[in-house]
UniProtKB/TrEMBL annotation:
Protein name: TetR-family transcriptional regulator
Entry's Gene Ontology molecular function annotations: DNA-binding transcription factor activity; transcription cis-regulatory region binding
DNA-binding region per Swiss-Prot/TrEMBL record: 39-58
Cited InterPro entries: Homeodomain-like_sf (IPR009057), HTH-type_TetR-like_transc_reg (IPR050109), HTH_TetR (IPR001647), Tet_transcr_reg_TetR-rel_C_sf (IPR036271), TetR_C_40 (IPR049513)
Taxonomic source organism: Streptomyces albiflavescens
Keyword DNA-binding: yes
Length: 217
């Protein structure tokens, strides 16, 4: 999961560990079913914390599950930051977003199941991949790499397409995920105004191996 500065004393460390356990439990529930009807008692038991500890960190289940989705989004975004550091072509960054997401259905299944079940409501979130994608879209428009379009509207199209790809990866595991993602990335780049031959080449550039990273948290 995303990391932050370590708590400065034992009490704060224990508090942070309890919160982490609750968020982790909520992420597991979202990944398994997407159902948020589990009782607070059931969540606390899964997290292996006391029932009363819940209200030391969250006012409601809604707040907890929102925190769990945000946590997943931030892990998602941090993964892209780590893997695509040094890439400065907006078109390549957009294409890599689709292709890495398809691979993460296998390398980070819990994370991607959370996005599969709850991602649509966070397409325009200020956390995770959305602000990074908006930044790349704006850079592409400013540089002339992409056609003059409203980046926020383009983000809606990209977010919906990305979530459809994630759904496809889980619904049809027999498909060649890499090829499907590359084809979709090529279509998206063409939609953004990248010339066909260029879009095809960019959508098939070498990608880093996510399996080398392993899971965190």
């Amino acid at each position: 999961m995303p990391t932050s500065a370590p708590p400065s004393n034992r009490f704060e460390r224990r508090r942070a560990e309890t919160r982490h356990a609750l968020v982790r439990a909520a992420r597991q529930i979202l990944a398994e079913t997407g159902d948020t009807s589990a009782s607070i008692q059931a969540i606390a038991e899964r997290a292996d914390v006391g029932f009363g500890s819940f209200y030391n960190h969250f006012e409601s289940k809604t707040e907890l599950f929102d925190a769990a989705v945000v946590d997943a989004l931030e892990e998602f975004g941090q993964t892209f930051d780590e893997r695509l550091r040094g890439v400065d072509d907006p078109a390549e960054l957009v294409a890599a977003g689709f292709r890495l997401s398809a691979r993460m259905a296998e390398s980070h299944p819990e994370l991607m199941q959370v996005l599969r079940h709850r991602g649509l409501g966070y397409v325009h979130s200020d956390r995770g991949l959305a602000p990074r994608a908006l930044r790349d879209l704006e850079a592409g428009v400013d540089s002339g790499r992409f056609s003059l379009v409203d980046p926020t509207v383009a983000l809606s199209a990209l977010g919906g397409t990305l979530l459809s790809l994630v759904e496809l990866r889980f619904a049809r595991p027999d498909l060649d995920g890499d090829e499907a993602a590359a084809n979709l990335a090529e279509m998206v780049l063409r939609m953004l105004g990248v010339p066909p031959d260029d879009a095809r080449e960019v959508a098939r550039r070498p990608l880093p191996d996510l399996d080398q990273r392993g899971r965190s948290g």
